[in-house]
Amino acid sequence: MHVQVVLLDGFDPLDVIAPYEVLHAGGVASSGAVSVELVSAEGPREVPSGAGSLTLRATGALDPERAGVILVPGVAGRFGEPGAVPGRDAGDGEWWQQPDEFISVLLDRAMATELPALLKAAMENPAVTVATVCGGSVILARAGLLAGRHATTHHQGLDALDAGGTHAVRARVVDDGDIVTGAGVTSGLDLGLYLLERERGPRIAHAVEELFAHERRGVVWRAQGLAPVGF
């Protein structure tokens, strides 16, 4: 299983690093049956995160034709729109805000790149599973790729999924076949472990879980079995 972890401007570092490290460890535990790389829609480049001066390097271009998993993170920033929330005192009595601080602005920039088209091509490839952490599913939804599908995201973004025709699920990890989504930022650990279990078996996933001293939280939600009633 090869995993392409997508870097986009303003990415949330933990959305990337948590599943990357889990999946890399899975590769070690499975004698190379899992490989993982950092990619971007633009190809090799330094990609700034949304957390200060932290950057990571994409070593390749996102390839929707390559079999395996494509993992899309969310972005790090403030909720709301520039001008709609209080700003900061710049020292001259003026209040100001940097647009780059806002998740909405960073998502708009991602939608203006080749990323949506590449993700659409990946979704059309039966050999690819698309996974997301946190706001990564919002990117898919805004690209029109989650209509009628089940997915999750950060709890503050669930309404945005619903508004786009997605069946938003309040769960840690949601498995909808060729789309597997994780909720808030730290769910990247659980998502990575679940992908290892699903694709390479529970013994590999358990070995990595034990190595990281992290017990997965919650039930992986699927549209299967009896539907709950009464609550």
From TrEMBL:
<protein>
    <submittedName>
        <fullName>DJ-1/PfpI family protein</fullName>
    </submittedName>
</protein>
<dbReference type="InterPro" id="IPR029062">
    <property type="entry name" value="Class_I_gatase-like"/>
</dbReference>
<dbReference type="Pfam" id="PF01965">
    <property type="entry name" value="DJ-1_PfpI"/>
</dbReference>
<dbReference type="InterPro" id="IPR052158">
    <property type="entry name" value="INH-QAR"/>
</dbReference>
<dbReference type="InterPro" id="IPR002818">
    <property type="entry name" value="DJ-1/PfpI"/>
</dbReference>
<dbReference type="GO" id="GO:0006355">
    <property type="term" value="P:regulation of DNA-templated transcription"/>
</dbReference>
<feature type="domain" description="DJ-1/PfpI">
    <location>
        <begin position="113"/>
        <end position="197"/>
    </location>
</feature>
